Amino acid sequence: MRLSDSIEQFIKELLNQESTEVELKRNELAEYFGCAPSQINYVLATRFSPDHGYLTESRRGGGGYIRIVRVVQSGSQRLMYLVNDRIGDSLSEEECLRLISQLKEQMIVTADEAALMASAVSTRALSVPVPDVLKDAMRAKMMKSMLMSIAARNRN
Amino acid sequence: MRLSDSIEQFIKELLNQESTEVELKRNELAEYFGCAPSQINYVLATRFSPDHGYLTESRRGGGGYIRIVRVVQSGSQRLMYLVNDRIGDSLSEEECLRLISQLKEQMIVTADEAALMASAVSTRALSVPVPDVLKDAMRAKMMKSMLMSIAARNRN
DNA sequence: AGACGTCTGACTTTCTTTGACCTATGTAGT
DNA sequence: ACTACATAGGTCAAAGAAAGTCAGACGTCT
User: Fold this and answer.
1) Which of A79, B19, B31, B99 is 20–30 Å from A141 (CA)?
2) Nearest partner of B102 among B122, B81, B124, judged by Cα
3) Does residue A70 contact residue A21 with C-beta atoms inside 8 Å?
4) Continuous segment of H or E residues that includes residue A103
5) SS (H, E, C) A12-69
6) Helix (H, G, I), strand (E, B), or coil: what is residue A124?
7) How do residues A92-111 score in pLDDT, each as one tens digit?
8) A1 alpha-carbon distance from chain centroid
């Protein structure tokens, strides 16, 4: 078995015991597995990315840590569908707004959240000298990112 | 737990008991925590700055002291300050995250809103081939746009 | 052999903690 | 008033503690 797979499994077991969230020390974990600390980052990047349904945050310096949160769980199916299939690589402001208002109607997001998302992808918020093509690409990524965060909120 | 965190917590407990204001002796506090006196200044600078919603004043010499005051400010006042004065034309991801977590701590935004905003300005959400300078400019605009949307909701 | 996935190590960045030195204020002696 | 000393907080640079990044070595399939 590969090292990465062992580490992945180890973390997933922690997540099953503990709850949907686990906090660990990168150096300790690396020591435990007898590998370079950066190996941990590799595992996080390849197996615990948002695309895989996880969010991670960390802090450097004395007393630093890495926290991993599992997002995917029944209940946020619709959102995950949007993130994985419906939204592609590009979304215009109009498409964003349409999507957002649909989500609001289906009561998947609150009115406040809808307004917040709309303001983030608004023309006003993105009025910076960048080609429209890139702005729309950004909108798609922002929408995915925000929906992931809402899916995380919906967990249990 | 980090020393800084302990000291921060200690002061916040004092602030909760006493009132909105607390006065303490730097050397005594340092002695109590068994650390260098300048550590106290570090905690003040990183956790009790005006951005965090606190003001500090002090006096040297015999009978010197440090006074910490929690600024009471309505949510929308704070949001408007951020939009009009604090946030300029450019904001890095780190600065965004710092501001967002401060707003969360001050209970001006909910944890969900904070997560949503953080995901919108994340590197992940903006990972398109655009110079960092422009991304940071966009972050500033997005933050203002989102904060105004929250201010509109609050109405107080 | 080539392509893709794994792993490491050197270097970087961020956050914390300490210590040496500096400045301001009060008090006592002249 | 002036000087001197004690008291107390301020500043800053350097060391320490952790995590992040990335290029390149290494493996494992096809």
Assistant:
1) B99
2) B81
3) yes
4) helix A93-105
5) HHHHHHHCCEEEECHHHHHHHHCCCHHHHHHHHHHHCCHHHCEEEEEECCCCCEEEEE
6) coil
7) 999 999 999 888 978 888 99
8) 28
Polymer length of chain B: 156
pTM recorded for the entire structure: 0.86
B35 touches strand C (CB under 7 A): yes
Give nucleotides in strand D with any atom < 7 A to a protein C-beta.
6-13, 16-23
Which residues of chain B are within 8 Å of residue A124 when distances are taken between CB atoms?
Answer: 141, 145
SS3 B58: strand
* B5 at interface of A, judged by CB pairs closer than 8 A: yes
Residue B119 with chain A: CB contacts under 8 Å: 142, 145-146, 148-149
| Residue A148, CA distances (Å) to A93, A97, A110, B7, B117 in order | 19, 17, 15, 35, 12
Q: What is the pLDDT of residues B66-89, one digit of tens each?
A: 999 999 889 999 999 999 999 999
For each of the domains in chain A, give its residue range(s) and CATH number, in order of start: 3-70 (3.30.56.130), 77-154 (1.10.1200)
CB B67 within 8 A of CB B58: yes
CA B3 to chain centre: 19
Rounded Cα distance, A34 and A125, in Å: 47
Q: Supply A88's token pair.
A: 């592609």
Chain A residue with the nearest C-alpha to that of B113: A113
Q: pLDDT tens digit string along A20-69?
A: 899 999 999 999 999 999 999 999 999 999 888 899 999 999 999 999 99
Q: Strands across the sheet with B65-70, in order? A: B21-24, B65-70, B54-59
